[in-house]
Amino acid sequence: MLNKSQVQYCLDVMKEMYPQAQCELDHANPFELLIAVVLSAQCTDNLVNKVTSSLFQKYTTPEDYLAVPLEELQQDIKSIGLYRNKSKNIRKLCQMLIDDYGGEVPKTKQELMKLAGVGRKTANVVASVAFNEPAIAVDTHVERVAKRLGICRWKDSVLEVEQTLMRKVTKDEWADTHHRMIFFGRYYCTAKNPQCSECPLLTLCREGQKRMKKKNAAKT
DNA sequence: AACTCGGGGCA
DNA sequence: TGCCCAGAGTT
């Protein structure tokens, strides 16, 4: 298992691999961030980014999403997939924000998870990025990367992965951790056919070492 | 833990 | 074509 300084090294390397143009979502206000992350479920980020720029011009408050017919909102987000569920969820979510939170986005992940269409991952992203709350978002990419590198155990649950990460990452980088690991997992440490031989973290990667050994054995 | 939801991207 | 995707909700 990787110790704290090794994990820190991994995150430093991932930071350098991360493109200059940081995720625009970082700079959005909490409400826009929340909407964007809810929309991003099960579709790629650049697909969502295509929609959000025009979406956030048209809709700026929870009331705005409720002011138009459902069909109009569906049309506006149609191109990202799952738009029927997502548009309904967003309206439900906005209604809850108005009714229960005075139109503001709640700050803790416990409150965020009560909202429609907001699960553990979305709640953690919004809480940590927008409000600097103690949380690290874990999705399939983060989980895979953490397990391959040896940050946590293979059989750890999502919750255990999250807790291990919070133990091994310094507090002021919690908000950034999921962006780096997700990007690394999406474009380098891919689920299928990861290019381990070109990976800068190969020397300390548990799974990478195993794969390279296998590859060499197959050659000879 | 397993299943469903589903449009677009990509090979 | 067929498979996959920065998940969440329900059973």
UniProtKB/TrEMBL annotation:
<dbReference type="InterPro" id="IPR011257">
    <property type="entry name" value="DNA_glycosylase"/>
</dbReference>
<feature type="domain" description="HhH-GPD">
    <location>
        <begin position="39"/>
        <end position="187"/>
    </location>
</feature>
<feature type="binding site">
    <location>
        <position position="205"/>
    </location>
    <ligand>
        <name>[4Fe-4S] cluster</name>
    </ligand>
</feature>
<keyword id="KW-0479">Metal-binding</keyword>
<protein>
    <recommendedName>
        <fullName>Endonuclease III</fullName>
        <ecNumber>4.2.99.18</ecNumber>
    </recommendedName>
</protein>
<comment type="similarity">
    <text>Belongs to the Nth/MutY family.</text>
</comment>
<dbReference type="InterPro" id="IPR005759">
    <property type="entry name" value="Nth"/>
</dbReference>
<dbReference type="InterPro" id="IPR023170">
    <property type="entry name" value="HhH_base_excis_C"/>
</dbReference>
<feature type="binding site">
    <location>
        <position position="196"/>
    </location>
    <ligand>
        <name>[4Fe-4S] cluster</name>
    </ligand>
</feature>
<keyword id="KW-0411">Iron-sulfur</keyword>
<comment type="function">
    <text>DNA repair enzyme that has both DNA N-glycosylase activity and AP-lyase activity. The DNA N-glycosylase activity releases various damaged pyrimidines from DNA by cleaving the N-glycosidic bond, leaving an AP (apurinic/apyrimidinic) site. The AP-lyase activity cleaves the phosphodiester bond 3' to the AP site by a beta-elimination, leaving a 3'-terminal unsaturated sugar and a product with a terminal 5'-phosphate.</text>
</comment>
<dbReference type="InterPro" id="IPR003651">
    <property type="entry name" value="Endonuclease3_FeS-loop_motif"/>
</dbReference>
<dbReference type="GO" id="GO:0140078">
    <property type="term" value="F:class I DNA-(apurinic or apyrimidinic site) endonuclease activity"/>
</dbReference>
<keyword id="KW-0227">DNA damage</keyword>
<keyword id="KW-0234">DNA repair</keyword>
<dbReference type="Pfam" id="PF00633">
    <property type="entry name" value="HHH"/>
</dbReference>
<dbReference type="InterPro" id="IPR004036">
    <property type="entry name" value="Endonuclease-III-like_CS2"/>
</dbReference>
<keyword id="KW-0378">Hydrolase</keyword>
<feature type="binding site">
    <location>
        <position position="199"/>
    </location>
    <ligand>
        <name>[4Fe-4S] cluster</name>
    </ligand>
</feature>
<dbReference type="InterPro" id="IPR000445">
    <property type="entry name" value="HhH_motif"/>
</dbReference>
<keyword id="KW-0540">Nuclease</keyword>
<dbReference type="Pfam" id="PF10576">
    <property type="entry name" value="EndIII_4Fe-2S"/>
</dbReference>
<dbReference type="Pfam" id="PF00730">
    <property type="entry name" value="HhH-GPD"/>
</dbReference>
<keyword id="KW-0456">Lyase</keyword>
<feature type="binding site">
    <location>
        <position position="189"/>
    </location>
    <ligand>
        <name>[4Fe-4S] cluster</name>
    </ligand>
</feature>
<keyword id="KW-0238">DNA-binding</keyword>
<keyword id="KW-0326">Glycosidase</keyword>
<keyword id="KW-0255">Endonuclease</keyword>
<dbReference type="InterPro" id="IPR003265">
    <property type="entry name" value="HhH-GPD_domain"/>
</dbReference>
<keyword id="KW-0004">4Fe-4S</keyword>
<keyword id="KW-0408">Iron</keyword>
